[in-house]
Amino acid sequence: PLFRSPGPHNPFTSLSTVRALSAADGHQLWSRSGGNVAAPVSVRLACAPADPCLAGVNEQEDAVSYAAATGAVLSQTPLMGDLTTAVPATIGGRRVIVAGSQSGGVYALDAGDLSRVVWQANAGGAVHDIALARPTAGGPPVLVVAATSRVDVLDLDTGHLRFSRAYPGQFVWTLTVGRLGPHRAGVVVATDELTAFDAGTGRSLWTYRPPVSAYFSDPAIVDGVTVAEYQSQVKQGRPPATMAAVGIAATGKVAW
């Protein structure tokens, strides 16, 4: 199956199509294309004989099943396929590795036995970055997950979703965590702009939009100042017309 490389203005879209045809006369019963589509070579009959479904694996490495009669999605589960990022952590005194996958899965794995999954969660899109944050002094840490078009904040002990922030039309590749003024766990997300929020409350702190349409590099928080580079958006293979570094104060004002 063919697919386009995802980007800020080009979210993942499968070019595969799955169609169901009537065995009696061959007319099309339903068709699925575009988004959540299983790779045709993986599609098979599954579920109970009295109520069959179709199951397969899509190009984002999710196991997906469809109602045989209508093509409606019955379930979607990220598989532990290509792991793209990970951080070490501790849960209940046990050392774990929290890893994110291309399928959108987030897994807490026992560091002493990586085959043992402590918990797993679904971030809804390919995971590109994971960071630990501690919103309150002495309080429990949380996980901040960059997952293609959204950022999830998860409970470290259980993987339960605390809250999620959507970034429609943007590509969430990287983020950083640090102190921003009174906010112990400020999160800065780099897309075609810089946005900051509090990992404890989800409250938006500030947004910085450069003077040109741009892509940002990995940000860093240094003494409360967010530092990042950006370049102007251009067609692939062409040099950028603008490149600049910027420092944003904890208040959201441009420091330099």
Helix content: under 10%
User: Order of strands across the widest beta sheet?
Assistant: 3-4-5-6
Q: Roughly how many Å is the radius of gyration?
A: 21 Å
**Helix-and-strand structural type:** mainly beta
Output the helix-strand order: EEEEEEEEEEEEEEEEEEEEEE
Q: Mean of the pLDDT scores?
A: 88
| Number of helices, counting only DSSP H or I runs of 4 residues or more | 0
Give the distance, in angstroms, between the N- and C-terminal Cα atoms: 47 Å
User: Which runs of at least 5 residues are low in confidence (pLDDT < 50)?
Assistant: 1-5
Question: What is the strand content?
Answer: over 45%
Shape: globular
Assembly state: single chain
Describe the overall structure.
With 256 residues, the protein is an all-beta fold. The protein is 0% helix and 54% strand. The protein contains no helices and 22 strands. The chain has a four-stranded antiparallel beta sheet, with no helix packed on it. Strands 7-8-9-10 form a four-stranded antiparallel beta sheet, with no helix packed on it. The termini are far apart. Mean pLDDT is 88; it is low at 1-5.
Task: Compose a concise summary of this entry.
With 256 residues, the chain is mostly beta strands. Helices cover 0% and strands 54% of the residues.
Considering the chains and any ligands shown, give keywords for the structure.
single chain, 256 residues, mainly beta, four-stranded antiparallel sheet, 0% helix
Topology at a glance:
Layout: E1 14-21, E2 28-34, E3 44-48, E4 51-57, E5 62-67, E6 73-78, E7 83-91, E8 94-101, E9 105-110, E10 113-122, E11 129-133, E12 142-146, E13 150-155, E14 161-166, E15 174-180, E16 183-190, E17 194-198, E18 204-208, E19 214-216, E20 220-222, E21 225-232, E22 243-248
Antiparallel strand pairs: 1-2, 3-4, 4-5, 5-6, 7-8, 8-9, 9-10, 11-12, 12-13, 13-14, 15-16, 16-17, 17-18, 19-21, 20-21, 21-22
